[in-house]
Amino acid sequence: MTIVVFEDEHVPRLYPVTLGRPAYAITCGAFRLLDWLKQLDLPIHGIVRSHLADIQRNDYPDLGNPRLSDSQSILFVNARLVPSRTIFQTLRELLASDRPGVVKHNGEVAAVLLTRNADVPVDTPTAAQLPEYFAKVGVERLNSLEHELPLLQYPHDIVRYNTQILSENLEYRLSTGSYDEVADGVFVGQNARLGDYVVTDTSAGPIILESNAVIGPFCFLKGPGYIGHGAKLIEHAAVKDAVSIGHTTKIGGEVEASVIEPYTNKQHHGFLGHSYLGSWINLGAGTCNSDLKNTYGTVNVDHQGEKIATGMQFVGCIVGDYSKSAINTSIFTGKTIGVCSMLYGFVTTNVPSYVNYARLFGQVTELPPEVMMATQQRMFRRRNVEQRPCDVQLLHDMYELSRDERQLAGDPLSL
User: Fold this and answer.
1) In Å, how far are 54, 321, 322, 340 from 373, measured between CA atoms?
2) Which fold has domain 156-407?
3) Is 335 exposed, middle or buried (0-12, 13-18, 19+ CB in 10 A)?
4) φ/ψ (deg, to 5) at 381
5) Rounded to an integer, what distance in angstroms lies between the CA atom of residue 404 and that of residue 402?
């Protein structure tokens, strides 16, 4: 049996989140989909977009390249699956049944189980070849399997599902990991530390601190909450109501119902609510976002030229990898910030990738990738991370992939 986790043609709909990372590496509910797939203890192959092939080889070397024709059965898993414990259990049931079929969500393929037959092509398809591969093996003719496998459709879905699945995901971590309970519902890994006068509330769910996480004095933590390996919460931080914080982060101020990927800093005072932050982001002191309309109505977002009704009353911001904000930046409700952009003042519109955004002052200028290469090198050095050729190439690739985004943004760009 082999598992193939694949990116489909709808992955760009999750930009900027998936511009620089495979969809299976999105954190939601303190897990990535890849984390769950590894729990199945089977060989895994990843099919990603071409510009991420080197990133996959370097960052996910355990995703091999098996000959699919040699496998007794193949489970194809959409990389946009919501990474929840319930999803994990459903995939286990699919594997146990060994019954060929297809599972769809809103008409899109969520999973396909193929049993061994002579029609399986020898070579593993690329992401571009996948539709042809599925047509060749007759996916559309397979029986429809009655399983619920929800997919991430838009970036704000990460925020939506994070609040829904975090508690069940944390319960699984507690059942399989090694933690000490240092207070009612507060569990810590090796060398994790809580400062003096920390107040915790776990009435709505547990709080987990991974190894070497540090909580400063006078902090408030309200579960469910997850704080990754080596993360640091500075004094007087308030982290509450379904927050998932990645490893090697620095967090301060007030954070509510948000996902923060590894190596990101929100170290100073300011509010972050119902938002998603990618990796290697830095929010300047006083940066705040709005996650609620003045009318208290549900939030509609503009996404890739389309107005989307989220059905959610609370939607903050989506911020792509490597973006930065200056002090006292204010981000309006439901805004999306692309990768590698710099924010100043009031952010009243979506921000494309690779721009200096100071719209309040009439300035929106393009940011060349060479500037981000130097910035990346300095950031990596501060965290003892090596800047590799694939990291530099990714900056160039993301710049080219987001070129149309800048041209369609509606703001005059100066080079």
Assistant:
1) 17, 13, 11, 10
2) UDP N-Acetylglucosamine Acyltransferase; domain 1 (2.160.10)
3) buried
4) -60, -35
5) 6
pLDDT tens for 326-339 read 999 999 999 999 99
Reported residue count of the chain is 415
**Domains 2-141 and 156-407 alike in fold:** no
| DSSP secondary structure letters along 250-287 | EE-SEEES-EE-TT-EE-SS-EEES-EE-SS-EEPTT-
Closest CA to 232 of 261, 212, 218: 212
d(CA 182, CA 186) in angstroms, rounded, equals 6
The secondary structure of 113-182 as a DSSP string is: EEE--TTS-SSPP-TTTHHHHHHHHTGGGSPBP-----B--STHHHHHHHHHHHHHHHHHHHHHS--EEE
For residue 83, give every residue at least 6 positions away whose Cβ sits within 8 Å of its Cβ, in sequence order, or none. 26, 27, 28, 29, 31, 32, 33, 35, 36, 165, 169
Residue-wise pLDDT tens digits, 285-338? 999 999 999 999 999 999 999 999 999 999 999 999 999 999 999 999 999 999
Provide the whole-model pTM: 0.95
The CATH number of the domain covering residues in 2-141: 3.90.550.10
| Domain spans in the chain, listed from the N-terminal domain onward | 2-141, 156-407
CA torsion angle for 146, 151, 157, 159 (degrees, to 10)? 90
CA distance 393 to 369: 10
